[in-house]
Amino acid sequence: MIKSSELIINKDGSIFHLHLKPEQIADFVLLVGDPSRVKMIAAHFSDIEYSIQNREFYSTTGTYKDTRITVISTGIGTDNIDIVVNELDALVNIDLETREVKETKRSLNIIRIGTSGGMQKDLPVNSYVLSRKAIGFDGLLNFYANREAISDLDFEQNFMNHTDWHPWLTKPYVVNSSDYLYELLQDPQVKDGVTISAPGFYGPQGRELRLPIVDPDLNEKIESFHYNDFQITNYEMECSAIYGLSALLGHEALTICLLIANRRSKEANENYHPHMEKLVKFVLDKIAS
Ligand SMILES: O=P(O)(O)O[C@H]1O[C@H](CO)[C@@H](O)[C@H]1O
Ligand SMILES: O=c1cc[nH]c(=O)[nH]1
Fold first, then answer.
1. If both were cysteines, with which of 32, 61, 136, 141 could 70 make a disulfide (CB 3.0 to 4.6 Å apart)?
2. What is the torsional sign of CA 237, 267, 282, 173?
3. Ligand 2: centre distance to CA 265 (Å)
4. Bridge partners of 129?
5. How many domains are contained in the chain?
6. Percent of the chain with pLDDT over 70
7. Which domain holds residue 115?
8. In a domain, 7, yes or no
9. 243 CA distance to ligand 1 centroid (A)?
């Protein structure tokens, strides 16, 4: 039995941060960083079962072309992903009344739709990237046992050697996306990629305002890194933890991003919302196809 100090349930039976109940979770769960993106996605639903908000976590479940879909905003960062993915898993795989882990597990299809900064000069702003692998600069997965069983350790070592990884930085971890969700979403208009999830938007992605960074050459080394057929394509801030926790817990996970900036050519598009609208429609149609 899981103690109430470890799994906190609110008085109304909902889970601590998300304020959701087990029956409210669809098999397809879309995760987005920006709370306003939840409304944008829900605008495509033919009916909406509920909309709930606590802190930065806005959730709604509805139907798109006969497919039941839950959308949740995670806010920014892998620390929030620790909350969202663990609570989602508890909602479907732990009996919240008896506090026992269920014998038969449910596997969710978790798809993150995000914005991102490109890392290769030939990847223009407004492109879509599907993350085949995530590289976590955030360190979250290193806290969990058995993380080595679901990580690409050879990729990690090659990456650390190539970048001459600075000793003060957290050990990076590398986890693959779900093959099942990749098959569902892959498309000629989407580029396959390898995505770094950084624990910050500024220094951890090589942005210098007033503070110098510990390894100013890191982005150049990232751009020139090759491993088999893989090259690193983009930076964002959540994918690694979604892939890592989902792999450990038995859920399918995939991230698709709109590039709104390019870290190498130093471009950025702050008016990206029409492109995000198109990406949302693209993902919904793939899920419901
Ligand atoms: O657009 P979202 O999904 O928030 O994703 C990206 O944008 C935020 C940073 O601006 C980070 O969350 C990053 O991962
Ligand atoms: O450069 C970018 C753009 C969006 N999100 C990020 O994390 N980085």
1. 61
2. negative
3. 14
4. 191, 257
5. 1
6. 100
7. 22-287
8. no
9. 16
